[in-house]
# Entry
Amino acid sequence: MEAVGTSSPWLRVMLLGREALRVEKGFQQLRVRSGKAWITLGGRDLTMPGGEGVALDAKSGPAVVTPLGSRPVVIELRRRGSTLSGSDDALPEGAGE
# Structure
């Protein structure tokens, strides 16, 4: 796992092949940056392409994320309780590079 920045509220993760990530409480938002993800959250299965995201509710339990298809998927997780100046969708400068 790679932190977007040392003080950033975002955590960026790349999943390859059949890897899966269990996202425990502590994160409030999940966003797919590239690729396509299969996300199981609160008993629902979602397919999400790059550029889309979903709010993570602590009551829904953990989310499970896997790549969908042959390409890797890159996701970003926003830490719970973090605040961003400006838009909620803004990333720290240079984070998308």
